[in-house]
Amino acid sequence: MKRTAITAGALALLTSSLALGDHHGRGAEQVNGFPGVYVHPQITMTFTGDGYLITTVNASNVTAGVQTYTVADGILTVQDVSPPAFYSQDMADCVRDNPATYQINDLPDGFSMTAIDEPCPPRAGLLTRFELRDYVRPAE
Fold first, then answer.
1. Is 123 helix (H, G, I), strand (E, B) or coil?
2. Are 67 and 80 in contact (CB under 8 A)?
3. End-to-end distance of the chain based on CA atoms, in angstroms?
4. What average pLDDT values come out for the chain (140 residues) when binned by 10 residues?
5. Nearest-CA neighbor of 64 among 50, 44, 78?
6. Which residues contact 92 (CB under 8 A, 6 or more apart)?
7. Total-model pTM
8. Distance CA 52, CA 61 (A)
9. 128: buried, middle or exposed (CB in 10 Å: 19+, 13-18, 0-12)?
10. Closest by CA position to 52, among listed 65, 43, 61
11. How many Å apart are CA 74 and CA 96, to the nearest integer?
């Protein structure tokens, strides 16, 4: 039942985040430019205005994970609400129980992240390997 509630919550968050689809990158809403939608050929990361980070796998259009986030002075803090299904139970428990901090590294048209304090190393392997680009809505 708990897993069903988390999945239903993740779907509700994803649905509510679709309104951010017109966002064209950081800088419009907050000092550090979040919320926003950022892309990589493999994933899309949606930072919602109410503090959730939703990571979607582009090839399947399936949500891989949901985290809470805050941004202050170029530091991103995340904690998993619904970790990726491919995590072991021990890893899923670790990312649910332990927040992590990352330095936001600005790029000309996006950003990357560097782990500062990460008690669950596999999460860092996911978050630090991508250079994310500002989302640009395709021409219709």
1. helix
2. yes
3. 41
4. 50 42 37 72 90 92 92 92 92 96 90 94 88 76
5. 44
6. 80, 83
7. 0.73
8. 18
9. middle
10. 65
11. 23
